[in-house]
# Entry
Amino acid sequence: MTWDNARADAIIEAYKALDGAALPILHALQKEFGYIDDAAIEPVAKALNLSRAEIHGVVTFYHDFRKTKPGRHVLRVCRAEACQSRGADALVEHAAVRAKGHDAALTLEPVFCLGLCATAPAAMLDGELYGRLTQKRLDALIDGCVR
Amino acid sequence: MRALRFFLPRDAGALAVGADGVARALHTTAQARGLAIELVRTGSRGLYWLEPMLELETPRGRIAFGAVEVGDIAAILDAVIADKPHAKSLGPTDAIPFLARQTRLTFKRCGVVDPLAPVAFKGLDAARRLGAQATIDAVTQSGLRGRGGAGFPTGIKWNTVRAAQGERKYIVCNADEGDSGTFADRMLMEGDPFALIEGMAIAGFAVGATKGFVYIRSEYPHAIATLDAALRIARANRQLGPDFDIEIRVGAGAYVCGEETALLESLEGRRGTVRAKPPLPAHRGLFGMPTVVNNVISLATVPWILANGAEAYRDFGMGKSRGTMPIQLAGNVKHGGLYETAFGVTLGALVDEIGGGTATGRPVRAVQVGGPLGAYFPRALFDTPFDYEAFAARDGLIGHGGIVVFDDGVDMAAQARFAMEFCAHESCGKCTPCRIGSTRGVETIDKIVAGQDRAANTALLEDLCQTLKFGSLCALGGFTPYPVLSALRHFPEYFGAGKSRQAAE
# Structure
């Protein structure tokens, strides 16, 4: 859904009592909106009695948190060593070429290890896992996203 | 006729290769034939090249089929009913050599049981009978060392926290299993979450902690869901004890948060930057309170030790590495999976005999042991026994027990470069050797490979690695030299060694 300050405030309110609530709040915001809008920095900081700089620091430190809305689908092809040993680098390059010009449909994100190292190469598409990936299967996944 | 009882993993590794499709096909095919079946979804046995692996209960024990595809189901059902073999039949599960040769203590239930079927906490009962101090003594006597990678004796850590003063104490489970080539924590949490929950409850009882946190990486959504469900069941059944509770927290894609102090910072809601030690987390950890930080496998092994006795655990292993280690065979390996065995098995036996060599069938060129910060070993070092000290003696580490196999298509200079690149990508930025040195390392490797002042730049790279090794705050910067220097030492030909001499002649 599109960013909604009132909805964001409700999410912040629901989690702010947790010890060390910053990550749970940010995860909940990203789950709801797909990203963390700059508009969230101030209310999160206020709720946790921290500075805006600290919350900005947290959002930008962690690779998971996005500052902009992703495409309709998010594809993460593993780039770590176990997947490299089964040709992941070529798959990552191939995916980048295929995704070009389809920003609204598909966002590619790097990921370092999905814990599927014995069925490498591996990827995650919208939370679904894929192992023993081949270029052909990857193409089919991407076709399903950009069609 | 009694319903046929099947077992099929719902482990992420099995789902990634189509386990849910197999489950659906099994139900629809059986239904179409009017055949009564029961399907139990389990964790994985860890024989990933055979996943999805379907098992059937028989009077003679379970028999297995793998790797099963949707199209195999009709014929497998035919074979089962006619009591005839099928091409995908693997025979009795327990007799499959990869499983039969293992010593499964920590992973005893994993892949066998429904992960959410309640279990009695026999280890916790034993701990309560023993009392807190005797529980810690048992863990110390078992010889259990931290399975996250550092290998610190678990009982000693617990003793420190027990003795420390604080108004609250915490048990923090490090489930930020970021090392490529490792998946033991994931498998355990998905296949036997109660072992971890029980281990944390025992730790809480032993050191006097009232709250536990499990910090799980966000890349493991299935592990998070299974552990969360198991936690609700344990809580409803009042298995955690009157004054101990556990909460799950999810990481956010930062590898460095696997380092214990960065993990604590992250739990407190901050950027995952490393803290200088001392103070140790055992003295001043989460929210400034005495904190046990243990890996998933360390904690999940404790119930077995308490239930079966410290001596029984100690009897396995070699030297100062006691008990068993869940070794993970990964990457370009024919038989990839989880192999729990007593310490002491050689690297060569693991890769060639148990792992069956490469999946591609090409010669094994190198193996990386212990994750992205572990050394690359050539065949010449395959006699190294799997043991903390033996690997350290050869400038390597066993880390969290992952072995990534590469065939002869590997470019070892590219792997060394990746180690530096990964360090740069994941550095928390707090200390200069790691933050700046990693980027300089990438540049220097590029110069060496391009043949630019090769001897001088190689010397510079080695010097840089020494700076990283001794000047970094934590293992990210401190251990990145392991893959880099091992690649340089054992595989100099990839860095253009010998070329400059040829050019001069």
